[in-house]
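Predict the holo structure. Ligand: adenosine-5'-diphosphate.
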Amino acid sequence: MAPPLERSISQLILPGGKNIEFVLGDITDEQTDAIVNAANSALMPGAGVSGAIHGRGGPAIYEECRAILSRQGEIREGQAVMTRGGELPAPYVIHTVGPVWRGGGRDESAKLRSCYRNSIELADERGLGSIAFPAISTGVFGYPLEAAAEIAVKEAARSLEHSKQLSDVRFVLFDPLAFAVFVESARALAKAKSMAFKTYTAD
Ligand code: ADP
């Protein structure tokens, strides 16, 4: 019998031993050094990932968000800022604002790439070793899943190659369809770039 999907881990191994993992789950359970919030420009706790992170992390996260906003104003699409993780298992949260999908002609792909690149660069600059991402923009913001997955996986691989401290990126997908689509993107990238790709079952 096939193992349950919840325990299936797919892994893309980059030259030099850094790696990108794909799991099905809830990002608020992750114990990586940082988890990424699919935020909005006002950093308001909303629905989806943001509601789950603020709900479980407690009010300290939003207080820090408000301090950031009063220092630098609204966060633009593609930017990333960092707070502590409050009561979450992860010590830090990186809040990045994904683009709202408006048909593809408003620079959405470049903005989505920036979310991944800026989040990884910020984590690396702060000396973190691991980071977990949700599928940014694919919920309320409406970005088509296949296109978003391809950008996410390619940009994570590219940014991770340049990182000094950060060695592990994890994609935590909330539903089986998103998980399958991200794993397919990773498999395609592995084939195109001759990288190792494997799937195994967690203990
Ligand atoms: P956006 O506004 O950027 O589209 P959403 O939070 O609406 O962000 O959704 C982004 C993705 O995150 C969606 O694919 C959604 O299914 C998924 N998601 C929602 N809750 C969680 C969670 N707790 N952990 C991981 N992924 C989640």
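Residues 26-28, 38, 48-50, 52, 98, 134-141, 172, 174-175, 178 surround adenosine-5'-diphosphate (CB under 6 Å). The mean pLDDT is 96.
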